[in-house]
Write a structure and sequence with these properties.
Distance between the termini of chain A: 52 Å
Structural class of chain B: alpha+beta
Helix content of chain B: 40-55%
Number of strands of chain B: 18
Low-confidence stretches of chain A: 1-49
Mean pLDDT of chain A: 77
Shape of chain B: elongated
CATH topology of the largest domain in chain A: Rossmann fold
Oligomer: heterodimer
Low-confidence stretches of chain B: 1-8, 190-203, 498-503
Strand order of the largest sheet of chain A: 1-3-6-9-2-10
Strand content of chain A: 5-15%
Number of helices of chain B: 24
Radius of gyration of chain B: 34 Å
Order of helices and strands of chain A: EHHHHEHEHEEEHEEEHEHHHHHHH
Mean pLDDT of chain B: 79
Helix content of chain A: 40-55%
CATH class of the largest domain in chain A: Alpha Beta
CATH architecture of the largest domain in chain A: 3-Layer(aba) Sandwich
Number of helices of chain A: 15
Amino acid sequence: MIWFYQNPLIFPWGMDEKAAQDLLHERSFIGRSMHSTLLANERDPEIRFDTKKQIAAFTSQICEVIVGKAEAVKLAVACLLARGHLLIEDIPGVGKTTLSQALARSLGLVFQRIQFTSDLLPADILGNSIFDRNEQRFVFHQGPLFSQVVLIDEVNRATAKTQSALLEAMEEHQISADGVTYELPQPFFVIATQNPQYQVGTFPLPESQLDRFLMRIELGVPDRASERAMLLGMDRREMLKELNPVFGAGTLLEIQAKVRTIHTSSALLDYLQDLLEASRQRHRTGLSPRAGLALLHASQAWAMMNGRDMVLPEDIQAVGTAVMAHRLGHDIEQSGESGRTFADTLLKSVPVP
Amino acid sequence: MKTLRKKDTRVPRRPLLWLAAALLFTLPPMFGTLPSWVPLLFLIALAAKFWMEPKGYRLRSLIWKLVFVALILSLLFFSYGSLRGMEPGVSLIVLLTSVKILEAHTAREFHIMIMVAWILCLCGFFLSQNLAIALCLLIAFALLLVALIQFHRGLSSAFWPPIRIAAKLLAQAVPLIILLFLFFPRINTGLRFQIAPQRGASAGFSDRLSPGSVAVLANSSAAAFRAEFPDGKIPPLSAMYWRGVVMWHGEGLEWKAPAGPAALPRTSQGPPRGEAIRQWITIEPHDAHWMFALDWPVNSPSGAVLAPGNYLWSNQPIHKPRRYEVTSYPEIPNNRLHSREREPLLQVPASISPAARALAQSWATEKPNPRAIVNKALEFFRTQGFHYSFSPGQYGKNDLDEFLFHRRLGFCEHYAASFATLMRLAGIPARVVTGYLGGEYNEIGHFFLVRQADAHAWCEVWFPDSGWERVDPTAVVAPDRVNLGVNFFLERRAATGQLDNTQSAFARQLARWPIFGRARLGWQTLSYAWDTRVLSFDGDEQASFFASLGMAGHRPIFFIVGTLSFATALLTLYAGWTHLRTRPGGNRVKIMYETFCRKAARLGASRNPSEGPLDFSVRATRLLPNESERIRRIANTYIALRYAPAPDPMMLEQFAKEVNAFVRAS
């Protein structure tokens, strides 16, 4: 069992669901108490920061930590705002974990980190029922998934069994254990990192699992200038500790709700459907309807981040590769083509109607 | 009642100004056709309103209103003797409108005024239908539209939008107007109808030729008729004798035409000689039977006969413009003259003085040959100090003697009448022909405009060897009149101060300016087209139009129902089309955007098919920095139309304009 809390406010187990929710709310509140302005805004819904500015502040705070990866950071934020889960894939040491931690901290939410290993069991992440002698009954002890932001490191090191235990949690935002269904707290956001599949000791994520991730982003090695800045700068871990939460749960939920109201005109949906259709023609399986929804929601979030109240084809194109590539990685007919290149050609060849 | 009045609101100033302008434009047809005090009162009422409005005065008292109405009714009654008929009716409407102007105050009354003004437009057409009036009333109509639109836009101070909307509405009405004009069954009067005949002496000559009867026409610039030569064979101006009436009955200087001639028997004519000249003649209404044709017409258009003496005689008086085709030949030999016919041609009144008789006799005895006698007589006119004058003055009782032997001052009718009388006295059959000589060629419309001023009288004498021949004694006295046309003659006269008509002299001076001359010719052409193509499109023309479409023989109700249902279908289609067109997100936005992309590609910035509008605009502004502002605007409008929630339909027009302007500007 290798999970531990990064958050100084440790979440007490063995609470009932309602109390846990309340506490979560309270904690997220306390966590931000040092920011009086934000606090005031949170209390008074009439005074709100402009959503775009807020998101920009959030993004730039993360960019301070992850130098030279603005595009990836923006995509990660879009994924978060679109209520999707994020998969970060890259070789070790490029800042995957740092990015996910920066995200989690800047959100000011209850945060858990789970390191996946090959011997991890589903109960380790979901929770156990343990017999309470005082009360003479089994009490469910919630696992680390009962959190608002869950960072899963090296998700592809766990066995398929544990991986699929994540499925329900990610998709339904609930956990079933011993015949009881437990609601997960809101918002619920999974950030998973994985190593490329050619690395030793990995269990490739099944397609169904991959489909649950709204986006997969890659960080890549920073360019020379960014690397120099990193080498000269503060220790990343110190920086992470100094990060202050920008959003609260309430604000985030509000923004997430707002994202879904971003207008998608029929012309845009035409384009989206053209993309889906083209993927199905050129690929053995193509994009699933869920992928279509994912693309829609991600582009809505992207549009909102750009301060627009409508989605443009450009928004779909901006998030397209991140949303589509990992879904098209398998079964590519032409050898030598990865999901990423396939998605790129798809976006470059389907005309905007 | 009180509550009603309270509900009505005051009308803003601008729609009122538009309405006033429209009312002014309904005035021109009233001048000249109604007693002049009627439009004057109307103008005074309008001016009074302008004075009263800012002060808040208006006609409130019921008693005063009643007094005004009674006054109007009695004035009209005294002026016309009756209130029945078109003109008293129109006058009544105009005057009651004047009172309404003084009274009107509320928004409701503003609407009433607009409706009344529309009726005034209609009345204007009752009074006159010429092109200038039609244009005036069209302007009035448009101004009324503008006034209504401005009224409904409330206090918006924009000047052009209402005008633009009105112009658009009128343009949209054009297809319907054309449809109804062509197909709606016409009562057989054409568009032009005259309620009461009102033309007097100014509208041409009468069936009598007396000293001064042609000269009074010389200053009238009114059109008599217009002639076209469809075959392009145009006779020289000096030979352009438009034959009107042949007068057989002579009494010295007074000649008379037969009241109602019988048709010329076909057998009495020899075969025509020379080149046939075909003419299309559009005659102005003159309420008489004359129809004009070049010397000598050989056939008669339908509804007319060729009278003895080879002139055209309409069966019905000509009350509206009429267009007909006639063919003339320069010569018709007719050397048979029965003694029965010959006798009246030699008749002279007994009152002719011995001096005149002696003069004619002296020629006859001196020269036995008729041609020699004619030449002798022309010689007499040329050498004995005769002068051509527009104002020869009044001749007394013994006018022939006075003219021949004393004053020797005359206009064409004097010469023609005296010459014919002298010929008869000398034993040569002679008659007087009246008509027109020459005309003004319109090089834009390629037609001749013959005015009343071109009226002329000449002689015809009969020679045993060749029959009737034209002899124009005026040509001997004033060759310029014949060779150069009346205008040239009048000009010279005016220049030497012999013609005291400053107004027409001024007009002629203006006509010398090339631009003004061209404009005048253009206007005449338009006016001619209006008369021939629009006004004369009557029941007959319509019937032949239907026949040319293969739809002859249907009852009018067929056309009424057909036209109305076709118009309804047209309007429905148009409504559907505009609905589709103005629905944003529709095809049109896309098509317009593609047009824009094509234009941009021509300038060097072509869009990749997979490029979104925003990306493209960014790239295009970089490629075409000169057009950056426009490209950005187009992209923004396109995005708003295509992708934004609930786009404004008005934006579509804006977008179309931007895209259209894009290539023009670049």
